């Protein structure tokens, strides 16, 4: 498992096609948060997004024998998630019950003008603060916080140690925390949430 | 056709970023059901997921899974079916609804009036058509100048500092601007007040307001001009700005029209540039781009709503039409847009709100009920 987690997507693909469950687990861990966030944006329901995320991965596993022509695993997975979300959303719109779930959550979470303004401000603020950081720290922040990669994956991708990734993140979060609290007078968490859910 | 395309894209965006109004949500559902949004949904999803055109080549669909709307939902939806049924009965598309009925009862707009309270407690009601000397306070004379300004003029040195207050009630707006002893002009909106010294001694010029006021400050770098509103202070650096600090609003909004000003609250200070505003809450201070036209619309006798929340719009109407608002039905997340002259009766504004199909009103005396 530890060994497999250091492999790239494309190295894992043959293992997956061969039916090796550990390869599937690694890919699941690598992408499930990403896929969930994406789906959530279009169904507005945590329960539905959970279910659809599971289904995307079930499909991946069940259809593993047909993956031999796949060039980019990530591209394949994202398109699979997109298609499943679109089809499910349309199916939901035809079913009063499922649609109720979507509409109810949408209405409950709808943003007011003020919140939208705030979010835009927060996002712009974070972008500005991030742009002041060294490029390496910025890249690591993007991978860890916006692409939901683990420190291991980022270390692997950039060819540096896991503790180097961690050090960059600690530094970045410290800088952001200080400027957010000083300039905006709110907690970093409230600003980051807004940024990451966009 | 191109317009449709833009509109469809907007609908999809507003659905995915959760900003669609009830009407937009309905149209979205209808169009998505007809398959007319597939293209735009796909485009938006590709953008969100970072899918490149060449990724499509990877994809041949694997085996299907039959079950689409699974177990977790099933339990919840028994209850939902009831409430959602209600939702769709209440939110039929606007076109199917009866258009607004003009109420037999109506409410007249507010009027130009303000009350000046002198240091000795004497009250002077300011209306249009006054002219000449109104009062004397210490060595300061108060005049109405050609019916266009109330002017404080020092005729000799003032030894004791005395404070006067200009205030408006609900349904009133100051008939003319107030000109302080230093030449600074202040306009006062409904249900607002300003307390100021009859003359500015020392190296400070300090006034306090409640509600909403617009300032055109006579700049004097040797004498700082500060305005206190709730928990915030504005330091003028040579300038025109609007402060909205009503007690029933969640934020104090300070909008800079020209010059430069510093807003301080909660231990944070921000310098405003023209076209910017600050939002101050109990704990925070935020700098934003302002919609100056909407913020200062009251100065020109208008309401301008840009995606205004219903509650916020009704609070503004309440101050001008001197009404109480009762929510017999509380529609969430209704956003309204439009410009209205403040000289129209309330039915014109409410009628326009009803056209959206999202909300209905009933007027009883000076109470407006929100019904559905």
Give keywords:
heterodimer, A: 198 residues, mainly alpha, Rna Polymerase Sigma Factor, Chain: A, Arc Repressor Mutant, subunit A, 2 domains, 10 helices, 79% helix, flat, B: 372 residues, alpha+beta, Jelly Rolls, Phage tail protein beta-alpha-beta fold, 3 domains, 16-stranded mixed sheet, three-stranded mixed sheet, 7 helices, 23% helix, sigma factor activity (chain A), DNA-binding (chain A)
Structure description:
- The complex is a heterodimer of chains A (198) and B (372).
- By secondary structure, chain A is mainly alpha-helical.
- Helices cover 79% and strands 0% of the residues of chain A.
- In chain A, helix 7 packs across helix 9.
- The two termini of chain A are 33 Å apart.
- Chain B is an alpha+beta fold.
- Chain B folds into three domains: 1-45, no CATH class; 111-295, Jelly Rolls; 301-371, Phage tail protein beta-alpha-beta fold.
- Helices cover 23% and strands 37% of the residues of chain B.
- In chain B, helix 1 (2-16) crosses helix 2.
- The chains are: A mainly alpha (198), B alpha+beta (372).
- At the A-B interface, helix 2, helix 3, helix 4, helix 5 and helix 6 of A face helix 2, helix 3, helix 4, strand 18 and strand 19 of B.
- Chain B: Residues 302-370 form the Protein FecR C-terminal domain.
